[in-house]
Amino acid sequence: MPDNHLPSLVRRLHEELASAPSLDEATKADLRDLAGDLERLAGGPGPESSHTLRGRLNEGVERFEASHPGVAKALANLIDALALYGL
Around 54, how many Cα atoms within 13 Å sit in the side-chain half-sphere? Predict the structure, then answer.
């Protein structure tokens, strides 16, 4: 898998957030925090386990599946990328 795969998926999440004006600011902030955690994980191991991160991503997929399918898809792609990395 290309080394830039995870960062490109995080960029896609940022794009989805920018194009989802109906998300409230608190939700956008939560998703930006999650994206930041993923960026740190891509840079090397950190304090948060990938297991916890996957759980947060799964919650996001469930939360946004109906209301914001683009955001849900971006989160699901990140879950797949973590699995491919073995995280």
Answer: 12
